[in-house]
Amino acid sequence: MHDRRIGDTAHVFGNYGALWMNAMTWYDHETQSIWTQPLGRALTGPLKGTQLKIIPYSLVPWSTWREEHPDTLALIAERGSFRGQEPPTDNFVIGVAIGDVARGYVYPAVANRIVVNDQLGDIPVVVHVNPENRNIHVFSRELNDGTVLTFTGDENQLIDEATGSVFDPSRGIGLAGEYSGVGLRELPYISSFDWAWLDFYPHTDFYTGR
Q: What is the average per-residue pLDDT within 111-126?
């Protein structure tokens, strides 16, 4: 998911209908520039080289989203059957890129541990997967005052090892303890096959839990 604002203008995007490196491309209505979807970067046209800001998002089954956000309204263009979301496969990764550092977290490896504390460049991160509802979130472990937390937890909570503070793993908000009300900064990730992630981030490495 990307912020479609460039400067003071909110651009309108459409599906260009061609693939670049096996991934979807867009065009913007205003300049007809062509964009790559995974990177949010203009490939050709007047805006070539322009980079859209990536926005953190959740890719979860509809039932999980409804449970967490019961007042959600859905925009459906056509009525029809909904196939749902297929379970992630062994070559599905949670791709995180920060600056020049990229890492693909192999989904089964993270789902087996539920909570993974890691370091990506200068950013300490935590990756949380709920294997029951396939909810995925990535946060910075560093608070605004520079304190770096280390987490344990389970499907429904993140627990700071030092203080025992409990955090909501979906929203990154402290629920109890010393850090009650404190928010973690959510980091964007890309759901991808490992080979596709490698196409766009050839310098990546992979977390396999070993």
A: 96
Amino acid at position 86, single letter? E
Tens-place pLDDT, residues 40-87: 899 999 999 998 988 887 777 788 788 888 898 887 766 555 555 555
Q: Domain spanning 92-207: which superfamily?
A: Rieske [2Fe-2S] iron-sulphur domain (2.102.10.10)
For residues 168 and 160, give the distance between their C-alpha atoms in angstroms, rounded to a whole number: 11
Strand partners for 54: 2
CB neighbours of 120 closer than 8 A, spacing ≥ 6? 96, 98, 101, 103
Residues of the chain with CATH 2.102.10.10: 92-207
Q: Return the beta strands (E) in the chain as ranges.
A: 5-6, 9-10, 13-20, 23-28, 34-36, 41-44, 92-98, 101-106, 115-120, 123-130, 135-140, 151-154, 157-160, 166-167, 174-176, 190-193, 205-207
Task: Copy the structure tokens of residue 95.
Answer: 């791709």
Indicate the pLDDT class of residue 133, thresholds 50, 70 and 90: confident
Alpha carbon distance 69, 145 (integer Å): 31
pLDDT for 44 equals: 93
How confident is the model over 100-111, as a mean pLDDT? 95
Q: Distance between CA 134 and CA 122 in Å, rounded?
A: 28
- Read off the pTM: 0.78
